[in-house]
Specification:
Strand order of the largest sheet: 6-5-4-1-7
Number of strands: 7
Radius of gyration: 41 Å
Strand content: 15-25%
Shape: elongated
Number of helices: 5
Distance between the termini: 133 Å
Length: about 260
Amino acid sequence: MSRVYPLTFQVFKCGLVLAGFTSGILLAGCAGKGPQAQPAPEPAEGRAGAQSLAERQAARISALEQSMAELQLGLMEREAQVTELQAKLDEAIQEVVRTKSKLQSVESRAEAASTMAEAEIALKAVRAEAAEPGPEVFQAEQLLEMSAREFESRNYGGSLYLASQAMSLVNIGKRRLGGADMPHRAGEVLFAIPLSLEATRNSNVREGPGRGFKVLFTLQERARLVGLAYKDQWVRVRDDNGRSGWIFHSLVHSRPNH
């Protein structure tokens, strides 16, 4: 009996210690789970301001998407119009050539041959000087091929007409070469034909397409220019003195036809 009691007491004592230890853990856990500090509520003015900003940004994105869609559709329309006009132009040229053949025009064989030779020489010169020939060069080549065929068919009037049209395109290529002293830049796009422009105000013309390039010369308001190419928002131009450089697009506009 005396041996059992101490053992029982020891078990009881251990139980009390364990119970006390467990209670301590539970109390500590409860203490740790006390009321947590809640973040201060956001002022109503802040929520309204953020919502208003988001709505403005969403409206701006929607407007930009609408503008892009309109521009894409407009471009598709222009391309269709250009294709149709080109087809009509080709048909008109063919009609002139057929009419020349039927009328047995008085243009001489020598005159047609001379014009063809002149156009071919000028075309070779433009090709030799141009780092990247414009579309008018390829069109002139096609017209000269057609002129040669009509010449072989003894339609000298039609041959002369086609050779003269080719020469006009070659002259456009010569105008484009006015800015060939400047290096062609990556991303630069040639205009289909040189544009008749003028300066909208006193403007700087720079060595390259950007404000970081040095100023080559300054233009007076309404100075006459020829637009040759563009890159991003910059236009490569040449003035009446033969000087070339880059100008920001908003500083030029189409030259009035008067």
